[in-house]
Specification:
Blueprint (H helix, E strand, L loop, with lengths): L6 H14 L6 H22 L6 E4 L10 E4 L1 H24 L6 H20 L3 H19 L5 H32 L4 H8 L6 H17 L9 H7 L2 H28 L5 H23 L4 H21 L3 H32 L10 H4 L1 H14 L6 H15 L3 H26 L15 H20 L11 H16 L3 H5 L3
Antiparallel strand pairs: 1-2
Length: 503
């Protein structure tokens, strides 16, 4: 089991270099190669499912805190499963979708490099190496956003690059301050050394830098300016990755890991209040901004800001049920938002437009896209029996139990708002009579349909499994097997150090 850990980094990194050298290879070959790599990584992630003990891999056999280690626990297993599942479905979708772009091998090379960074961030036990993998994923994403090389894509990538550079400075400055305080970069050792310190103004300033850094990557309001341009401009598989797993890994996961397991802010109400406020503002602002959009993908981008707000709000409650709700909604949002961005890609592929006012009646010609889009709409809007309903229900229950009744009411109202703007998408894009100019369109190729069907099926299956919540005895299988081990890592807080460092 230990030997599996470096494979999550070595395999996609090696694949990135191989694909970069296959620039003129046949598209069929690079398609198969890329999908075999992401499929293998998904199999390895599934192989780790259910692992509850902490596993460490010491690079060069140098034990922590001296050497660099990879750490696997319930939270990292949870994130690896989500990241590599969405990656695999995104590369399947890319087989046909990316035919309209040139340099397909280079696209997959950058995709693999981004996947290397995401897996590295999840597994590393060293805060500086976390920053290095953070940068690898970010730089690859800049290229992928600009992959179409049109004015819109280049402008969005440049804007994203500038804001991300500021984020990197904040994070690097925070890491440098931590190193100056403790003389270590190993996260477990850092946690151990910080445990005996009071939260001085210097430490609170460092925490503030880190919160600003991961809030920018998570696209929380008011740190969200890069996302509404980057997500619509990127190719649909990249948008699915950015919204489905990128903002969650580099933003939410990094924030959870550092705040809960390294700094240990469990008893600092000011930090939780900041997260609650940021999450709530993002929920409301993202929803209101989405309501006025006519660009299909831009609407989805603002919706991501709103849904990430739900996750951060639930985490900010600082309770075990809040942690479960946050992680459950993180997983659900990764699935249904990836589905919806791939839906938008399918629509754009067939109609060559993202303007909702130029669509209509698409379900008649694109039944698979239409049905799966409806599933995504019901899921993200919190309509039973789909998965989004149950995670939103847990968020609301957790808020009520934590005495945050006003926040719970806001969460309910934002869910109604979400339903309103996604019904608008259904009405403008898929319902009614098909327009004369679109009478020639047809359903997208099979490879694209496969990804849509699998994601829609997961929305339903996870939702049906979650009916066990109503029994009130034990959590259903998905929460018990996938979510609870991750929640325990957050609940254990700085005990993370005891499980990583040698006895």
């Amino acid at each position: 089991m230990v030997q599996i850990l470096p494979l999550f980094i070595v395999i996609p990194m090696g694949a990135a270099f191989v694909l970069a050298m296959l620039g003129k290879a046949r598209h069929g070959f690079v398609d198969w190669f890329a999908n075999i790599v992401t499929g293998l990584l998904l199999v390895l992630a599934i192989r780790l499912t259910g692992v509850r003990e902490v596993i460490t891999y010491a690079m060069g056999k140098w034990l922590p805190p001296l050497g660099i280690v990879l750490v696997l626990d319930g939270l990292s297993v949870f994130m690896l499963l989500i990241v590599n599942l969405i990656s695999f479905l995104a590369t399947i979708f890319s087989i046909s979708y990316m035919e309209r772009f040139t340099a397909k091998a280079k696209f997959y090379a950058m995709f693999m490099l981004m996947l290397t960074g995401l897996n590295g961030v999840i597994l590393t036990g060293d805060i500086f190496n976390m920053f290095v993998f953070f940068e690898i994923a970010s730089i690859a994403s800049f290229v992928l956003v600009a992959f179409g090389t049109e004015n819109e894509e280049l402008e969005a990538s440049f804007k994203y690059n500038v804001i991300s550079s500021v984020t990197s400075v904040l994070l690097l400055f925070g890491i440098a301050l931590f190193y100056g305080m403790t003389g270590t970069l190993n996260m477990a050792h850092l946690s151990q050394l910080l445990a005996g310190r009071e939260f001085s103004p210097g430490l609170l300033f460092t925490v503030s830098l880190l919160i600003a850094g991961f809030a920018t990557k998570a696209a929380l309001v008011p740190f969200h300016a890069w996302l509404p341009d980057a997500h619509p401009s990127a190719p649909a598989p990249v948008s699915a990755m950015l919204s489905g797993v990128f903002v969650k890994t580099l933003g939410i996961y990094v924030g959870m890991r550092i705040l809960a397991n390294v700094i240990g802010v469990t008893n600092i109400s000011r930090v939780w209040n900041i997260l609650l406020v940021l999450g709530t503002i993002s929920m409301v602002a993202g929803g209101l901004l989405a309501l006025g959009q006519q660009d299909y993908k831009r609407l989805l981008a603002y919706s991501t800001i709103s849904q990430v707000g739900y996750i951060m709000f639930a985490f900010g409650l600082g309770t075990p049920l809040g942690y479960i709700a946050a992680l459950f909604h993180l997983a659900n949002h990764a699935i249904f938002k990836a589905l919806m961005f791939l839906n938008s890609g399918a629509v754009e592929y067939a109609t060559e437009t993202r303007d909702l006012s130029k669509m209509g009646g698409l379900s008649e010609r694109m039944p698979v896209t239409g049905i799966t889009s409806t599933v995504g709409t019901l899921s993200i809007s919190g309509i039973p029996p789909f998965n989004g309903f149950w995670s939103k229900l847990l968020i609301i229950i957790a808020a009520v139990q934590a005495g945050r009744l006003t926040y719970a009411i806001i969460a309910v109202l934002v869910s109604v708002l979400t339903l309103a703007y996604f019904l608008k998408v259904q009405r403008y894009a898929f319902f009614g009579k098909i327009k004369e100019s679109l009478s020639h369109i047809k359903e997208v190729p099979v490879s694209m349909c496969i990804s849509l069907i699998v994601l829609a099926a997961l929305c339903l299956v996870i939702g049906l499994d979650a009916f066990g919540i109503l029994k009130g005895i034990n959590y259903p299988w998905f929460i018990r097997t996938i979510i609870e081990p991750a929640k325990e890592v957050l609940v254990n807080g700085t005990n993370y150090a005891l499980t990583v460092l040698p006895k």
